[in-house]
Amino acid sequence: MSKTIMLANPRGFCAGVDRAIAIVERAIELYGAPIYVRHEVVHNRFVVDDLRAKGAVFIEELKDVPPGCTLIYSAHGVPLSVRAEAEALGLSVYDATCPLVTKVHIEVKRMRQAGMEIVMIGHAGHPEVEGTMGQADSGMYLVESEADVAKLQVSNPEQLSYVSQTTLSVDETRDIIAALKARFPAIHSPKKDDICYATQNRQDAVKLLAEQCDMVVVVGSPNSSNSNRLREVAALKGVDAYMVDNTDLLEPEWFVGKSRVGVTAGASAPEVLVQAVIDRIKSFDISQVTELPGVEETTVFALPPALRPA
Ligand code: 10D
Ligand code: SF4
Fold first, then answer.
1. In Å, how far from its chain's centre is CA 90?
2. Closest atom of ligand 1 to CA, residue 76
3. Does residue 167's CB lie within 6 angstroms of at least one atom of ligand 1?
4. What mean pLDDT is reported for the chain?
C-alpha cells in the first residue's frame, strides 16, 4: 500500500504570531541589537533561537533590561503591573501582545468597571493567563477544569461573568462554560468565548486530519499551549499523536506500520520547520504528500505605526 503524509489546513503561523515576530525583527532593523523581549515572543524554540541570533535578548524580569533600552512584550500579553514597572524604569516599549489577547484585556477592565467579578478559564502559570488576570487587582478567579468550577466560591453570583485563554481546547472549554452556567445560572455570557479564530481553525483541521490518518505529528514546542491542545485533540480521535519541535525528536519506530501520517503545526511553529519535519518523515519510506482542503485565513494585524516600513 502506498504511504502518504497528509497535511492539515490551516496549520502553523497565525496573524498574531506573524505580527509579534515582525515587531521584533523591525525593532532590531530600526534600532539595532540588542532589543530586549519580555518572555519568549512566541512559544517556539526555532523562532526564539532565530531572533536571538538576530539580536533579540529574551528576559523574564524587567530588572534585567539595561536603562534606556527598548523592550518588547511577548504575544501572550502582560499584566498591568509590568506596564507600570516598565514606565517607572523609563523603558521604550513596543507591545507585541496579539490584538485578540488585548481584546480580552479590554473586556476584563470593562467588566470590572461595571462591578462584575470574572471567572477566567485557563491554565495556571501560563503567561497569557497571568497577563489577563493581571488586568484587575481583585475580583478574578481562575478555573482550569469542571472540578474547579464545582469548588469555586464567588462574592456575588448575580454579578459574574467569564473570559478565557485564547488557545484552549474548544470542546473542553464548552464543557467548563456549561458547568459554570449550571452552577451560576445568572452568570453573564459573552456572545462568544475568547478562543481565537486560529485556535478554532487548527483544532477543526486536526480533527479532520486525524479521522483520515493512523497517526498525527504536531509541530510545536513543549511550552506552546495551542500546540499541546492540537496533540490532545488528535489523540482524542483515537490515533497516536506526537508533538516535536525539531526533526531529531522523530522516532523511526513511530512510523512502522503506519500508511497515513498526518502533520499539522501550532500557531507559533514556522512552515520551514514543518517542511523539515516532512522531509525527515519522507526518509522513513513515506514519499507521497497531500494537503487537505481547509478554510482560508485572511486575518492580518498591522504593526505599531512607528515600526511600519516607510
Ligand atoms: O502557549 P500559547 O499557545 O499561548 O502561545 P504560542 O506562542 O505557542 O502561540 C501563539 C499564541 C499566543 C500568543 C496566545 F494567544
Ligand atoms: Fe492571536 Fe490566536 Fe495567534 Fe494567539 S493564537 S497570537 S490569540 S491569533
1. 29
2. 13
3. yes
4. 97
